[in-house]
Amino acid sequence: MVVLRIFRSVWFLSLLAVTAALLYGYASMREEVVVQETVEGSFRISRETFFYMVLALLTIINVLVFIIARIMVRSEDFKSWFYGLVITFNIFFMVGIGFVALYNSGEEYDYSRLQPVMYGSIGLLLLWSFAWPLYVSYKRLAGKS
């Protein structure tokens, strides 16, 4: 029960942090946001479109916490893992929003310095995603012996 409360608290703080990152990123972006650069040119969207698309995605992912809490009433372990998964998604989105805002700021920046942070957030997301199946497998094997 204590672990679940800790995950709920950290999830709420991550939700506040990703919301602040989105608002800060929105305020610092130009009217047109470059989302993808290719040899032929760049794919641009308005900053309002970027803001609302990211906001919708964040809302859907974070609302899943409430849906899972209602469906998986008895499984405290799964709910704790799911809170952690949503926390890692929020961390990934904070890093992504910061990268898009930095890229569109027009400042000279060595983007290779961001590689550990970008890959670290992806790695954390993947690691946490695979943690639940490994945990369940371990509990089954430990229960049989």
What does this protein look like?
This protein has 145 residues and is mainly alpha-helical. The chain has four helices and two strands. It has helices at residues 2-28, 47-71, 76-103, 115-144, and strands spanning 32-37, 42-46. The chain has a two-stranded antiparallel ribbon with strand order 1-2. Strand 1 and strand 2 (42-46) form a beta hairpin. Helix 1 (2-28) packs parallel to helix 3 (76-103). The longest helix is centred in the last third of the chain and has 30 residues, at 115-144. It is elongated.
Measured on Cα atoms, how large is the radius of gyration?
18 Å
The 3D shape can be described as elongated
Average pLDDT, to the nearest integer? 91
Beta-strand portion reads 5-15%
* Elements, N to C (H/E): HEEHHH
Widest sheet, order of strands: 1-2
Total domain units: 1
Structural class given helices, strands, pairing? mainly alpha
Largest sheet data: 2 strands, antiparallel
Could you give a quick summary of the protein structure above?
The chain has 145 residues and is mainly alpha-helical.
